Amino acid sequence: MLSIRIENNTPALKVDFRLPMGTLSAIVGPSGSGKTSVLRAVAGLLAPSHSLISFDNDIWTDTETRYFRPCYQRPLGFVTQSFGLFPHLTAAENVGAALTHLPRRERGLEAQRFLELVGIGGLADRRPSELSGGQSQRVAMARALARKPRLLLLDEPFSALDHSTRKRLRVELKRLQDALAMTVLFVTHDLDEAAELSQTMVLLRRGQVVQQGPTRELLRRPSTVEAARLMNFANLAKAEWVDSDSSGITLRWGDVLLKAETGPKSPPEGPIYWTIRTTDVFLVKDGHPDESSLGTILSADVTEIIEMGSSVLVSVIAARGGGELLRLRLRPGALHRHNVSKGSQIRIALNAQSLVLLQS
Question: Which CATH class is domain 224-357?
Fold first, then answer.
């Protein structure tokens, strides 16, 4: 397990989390949230005022006992946002720079092997100025892997690349991680990237952890209003706690009673916030054979329709609701099949299993 506990003033950090071994984990947050500083502390490039960092029960930093293992003694590889290639060296020589512990001939063979591992074995003699952004990133990855690290750190590894190259290299990263069974920690501001690559996610804002856990669970059920906003949940509404029983929590949203499967068993102080994914707000078709199984059904007026390639984002105001906009995501064909247009009235369903109650 990678265990990270850091308190620092400049940059401001107060984090405490653990990440599983042999998987790909992501730290996600906006610019200035402290993501890179956490990586630098793990790498031994930043010495926080208070920290305890260990990997597989091997302590790397412990300020209480004044123990600090230098960067070069930590079994890790680090790919920075700028890749950090030496401009006067070829791709093979850049990789070989991490292999100075080997004899020169063996160094060249190993460098070539790792270039082939990342799919650019034929570019060994090219200098960085002769490489594309994606090729440079692969050289940096090969160099980081050449020392056979147990932990790979990636700082915004795809941010400088074009969209198609980013997609291609995400697949390559997953392939490498699976093949090498390596522990990988990367930071990104791109939630879609983290969702696609990681098994575990840490949400960071202003140097503090907002939420952490399995990526799929975080993307489905944020725990706080702040986490929901960081993960771009389009639906966020305020209600009143009414009751709790064996069937779940009852809320009053405007003049409507809603059910949530889980939530506070006693009245919280002040209002309670709730969210639901756009894909979990259902369009109720006329003549549905079992409407009672869908949840709370509401009439709603369509206020906006935005076509977004393979899906359509529909904004509605629910009759007798709390006044907030709700958004649901449909396939383009559903608009025509069910006569959904701006100004039309539709019926939507909010299911208790999909309604997520948030800590404010």
Answer: mainly beta
The reported pLDDT for the residue numbered 285 is 87
The identity of residue 199, as a single letter, is: Q
236-245/272-275 β-pairing: antiparallel
Sketch the domain layout of the chain as residue ranges.
Answer: 1-221, 224-357
215, two tokens:
């990526």
- Spatial contact of 278 and 341, defined as CB atoms under 8 Å apart: no
For 352, list phi and psi in degrees, rounded to 5.
-60, -35
Higher pLDDT, 286 or 321: 321
Which DSSP state fits 34?
A: S
If you search the block for the tokens 């707000």, which residue do you land on?
281
Task: With a cut of 90, say whether residue 292 has pLDDT above it.
Answer: no
Helices marked H in the chain: 35-43, 91-96, 104-117, 133-146, 163-180, 191-197, 215-220, 225-230, 332-337
Q: Please, what's the largest Cα pairwise distance for the chain?
A: 78
Model confidence at 170: pLDDT above 90: no
Cα 167 to Cα 96: distance, rounded to the nearest angstrom: 28
Token pair in block for residue 173:
């990263």
Higher pLDDT, 162 or 52: 52
CATH superfamily of 1-221: P-loop containing nucleotide triphosphate hydrolases (3.40.50.300)
